[in-house]
Amino acid sequence: MYREDGMLFIIMEYLPGQTLELVWKNLAEHEKVEILAKLRVILNQMHSLPSPGFYGSISKGSVPYDFFWAPGGSQAIRGPFNDETAFNMAVINKSRWNSGYNNTSPFRTDFHEKHLLQILDGHHPTFSHSDVQRKNIIVYQRSSQESETGKEWEVSLVDWASAGWYPDHWEYVASYFAFVWDDDWPSRVDDFLEPHPVEAAIMHVITQELWF
Questions:
Q1: Which of 130, 116, 113, 120 is nearest to 46 (CA)?
Q2: How far is Cα 27 from Cα 193, in angstroms, rounded to an integer?
Q3: Do residues 112 and 95 lie in contact, with contact meaning Cβ atoms separated by under 8 Å?
Q4: What angle (nearest 5°) sits at the alpha carbon of residue 54, between those of residues 186 and 37?
């Protein structure tokens, strides 16, 4: 993205293939293994980028994930944040704002504030895509002399709107938010992401009230 002569330009690249969401049910087991192994390489390389020491967008702006949006631009909810405690407090602050907006009791938020900071601790800033689900994974099968089958899957991640620096559990947590539980996908996410089931369950309970 760049601006020239007062106009904003976005440069995009066409990727051949289909979303993993469309082809998943028709894939053989060895094809799933190949695709997920390549996805693991992509994410491991991304997650190994040196930490800048903050939580927020790549430009050290506000956290781009949608439920960190706040009316009036409250930095206590939007960030960026210098430590994990402030990041977790943003979730609590959004919950408290939500209670006030909907005229509901704050007791649930009080409970979250009492316990959340003790449980969600010790996670360093990690560059995360923040929306790894099958609709955002493009796969393309091409000919390959190196493959035993003569074909090879290429794998790409798209939709980077929520990407930024988050606690190291976040990639798994954000993927968990998108689980539908109608096939084997939730169990296969462990094949390419380090599982954080405790953090995912806790954040899911808290953030449900922020979306619904």
A1: 130
A2: 20
A3: yes
A4: 30
Residue with tokens 């539980």: 181
Digit-coded pLDDT (tens) for 82-141: 999 999 999 999 988 888 888 888 898 898 888 888 888 899 999 999 999 999 999 999
Per-residue DSSP letter, 189: G
**What is the Cα–Cα distance from 66 to 77, expressed in whole angstroms?**
11
Q: How far apart are CA 164 and CA 159, in angstroms?
A: 12
Dist CA 84 CA 105 (whole Å): 26
DSSP 12-70: -----SEEHHHHGGG--HHHHHHHHHHHHHHHHHHHTSPP-SSBB-TTS-S--SGGG--
- Is the separation of the CB atoms in 195 and 172 below 8 Å? yes
Taking the complete model, does pTM exceed 0.70, yes or no?
A: yes
Tokens of 35: 């695709």
Give yes or no for a contact between 65 and 174, defined as CB atoms under 8 angstroms apart: yes
Q: Look-up: residue for tokens 């609590």? A: 92
